[in-house]
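=== Structure Prediction Worksheet ===
Name of assembly: unnamed complex
Input type: mixed (protein and possibly other molecules)
Chain count: four
Listed entries:
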Amino acid sequence: MALPASAKPLRADAERTVRAILEAAERVLSTNPAAPMEQIAEAAGVARTTVHRRFASRESLIAALAAWATQRFHDAVEAARPDTAPPAVALYQVTANVLHVKIGWGFAMGALPTDAPEVARVHAAVLAQCERLFTRLRDAGLLRPDTDLDWARRVYYALIHEAAAEAPDTDAAVDTLATRVVDTLLHGIGTSATP
Amino acid sequence: MALPASAKPLRADAERTVRAILEAAERVLSTNPAAPMEQIAEAAGVARTTVHRRFASRESLIAALAAWATQRFHDAVEAARPDTAPPAVALYQVTANVLHVKIGWGFAMGALPTDAPEVARVHAAVLAQCERLFTRLRDAGLLRPDTDLDWARRVYYALIHEAAAEAPDTDAAVDTLATRVVDTLLHGIGTSATP
DNA sequence: GCAAGTTGCAACATCGGTGTTGCATGTTCT
DNA sequence: AGAACATGCAACACCGATGTTGCAACTTGC
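=== Predicted Assembly ===
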C-alpha cells in the first residue's frame, strides 16, 4: 500500500531523504515512541510536509520503519548460515551479526507492533531458524538434553537485547559483546557446573 | 503534588475506585501505552470524569501508577531480607517475590518513564540492594570472582522480565519460574562448566 | 436520618497532532 | 538546457484526546 520501496524508482535525491527520515524516526521514537511527526522531520532535517509526501500517514511510516529493520534483521541472521555452519560457530556469528544491526535499529526491531503480515512472516521465519539452530546445538551436546527450547530462545533474545543497549558499534565492541552473550547464555554467571 | 495516597483519608468507596482505576490502567496501558483515558475509565467501570476527579491529569495518573508499582516492588525486595539472609536463599526469595509483583504490574514496573524523584529514588535503592546481594554471592563463591556485577544485574533483571511474561500467578507457578530464573542466571542453558 | 462525600451524565472549551493543498524555489537526470 | 521531480513554506480543515463545570442521584459514615 504505502511501501516506498520497489514501487517506483525514486530519484537519488529522494532516496537519501527517505533514509534520513527512517534513521531520524529510529532515533526520535526510541526515546519517545509517541513523538509527533514534527520532531521526526526536524531530526531528519526536512519539513514536516516532506515526511507526509514520502509516508502517507504516521502509520505507514511506522510500518516502513519496521519493514526496513526487519529486513536487516533477516539478512543478519541469514549471513551467518545458521543451518549449515557448525552450530557453535553459527551461534556466535548470528549473535554478532544481529547485535550489529540491533545497535542502531533497536527500537524498530524490538518495541514495535508488528501488524504488517510481511514483518510478522519474517519474524516467524527467524524464530524457526533460531529453533533449528538450538536443536542442532542440543544434538551436538552443547545444550542439556532436557532444555526448554522456547525458554532458551527467549533468554537468548533477552541477552542480545541487553547487550545491544551498550551503544558502541565498533567491530571489536560487537565481538566483545557477542562473546559475553554466548558465554552467559551457555554458562550463566555462576561458578559451578550444572548440578 | 497529585499523590492521592496520604493526602486526605479517602472514603472506602473512593478508595476502591482508585484501586480499580490503577488496575485498569495497568491492564490497558500494558497492551497500548497510548490508550486514551476513556479506555482506562471503561476498563475500570467508571465514567471518564471520575478518573479526572481522582487524577487531575493523565500525567498524574501515570505518576501514581508508577509510584504504586514501585512501592510494591520495594516491599517485595525488602521482604526477602537480602542483606541478612544467606545470599543463595536471598537470591531465590527476592526472585520469587519480585516475580509475584511483576506478574500483574509488569507495565508499571518496566515500561514507564520514572520522572518522579520518589520513584527514581526507590529504583536506585533497589539497584544498590541488588549490587550488595551480588557482591555477597560473589564473596560466597557462587559467582566467578571476575564477574561484571553490572552485567550480572542486567541479565538478572532481563531474566525476571522474561519469566514474568508467563502470566500465571499461582504460588506454585511463581516458584517454578523463580527456580528457572535462578538456575539460568547461575548456570546458563549449556551443559559444561565454565572453561 | 442527615450531612458530607462520590459518581454519572451531558455539555463545553481547548489544544495539539494529522493530513492536505498550492505555489515558488531548487535539484536531478538526460 | 529543459522536463520532470523534490522540497520548503504557509495556510487550512479536521479530529480525537484532554480537562472543566454544573447538576441530579446515590452511598457512606456517624
